[in-house]
Amino acid sequence: MCATYAQNIMVATSPSPRGVEGLAYWFVISARDRKRLADYWNTLGHDIDTEHFFASLEDLKRFPGNVYVIQQRIGDFVIIPPLGAHQVRLL
Fold first, then answer.
1. Rounded to an integer, what distance in angstroms lies between the CA atom of residue 71 and that of residue 66?
2. Which of 54, 61, 69, 90 has the highest CB neighbour count under 10 A?
3. Where are the domains of the chain?
4. What's the rounded Cα separation, in Å, for the pair 81 and 73?
5. Which is nearest to 55 in space by CA: 72, 38, 30, 70?
6. Helix H or strand E segment including 36
7. Do 79 and 12 touch, CB atoms closer than 8 A?
8. Closest C-alpha to 87, from 9, 10, 45, 24
9. What average pLDDT is seen over the chain?
10. Which H/E stretch holds residue 85?
11. pTM for this predicted structure
12. DSSP letter for each residue of 6-22
């Protein structure tokens, strides 16, 4: 995982089959909880340093720490701090 700031600005979207355009949900876990997250990911059979695992919403709900949820729409700018684990779901 990169130890720099991540940033994303949503400038355009494609038509959505669900009828909701320009909507993404970011699930972010603080770098302070990185060790706790690594241990939790291991119980799920995955390594935090690979990008081959996408946690389900149930997995995120069961995480024994804070999961911050950011709703991003067109024009929104999201910044993720260094070592902040994150996943994005597009609608």
1. 16
2. 90
3. 6-90
4. 20
5. 38
6. helix 34-43
7. no
8. 24
9. 87
10. strand 85-90
11. 0.83
12. EEEE----PPPTTS--S
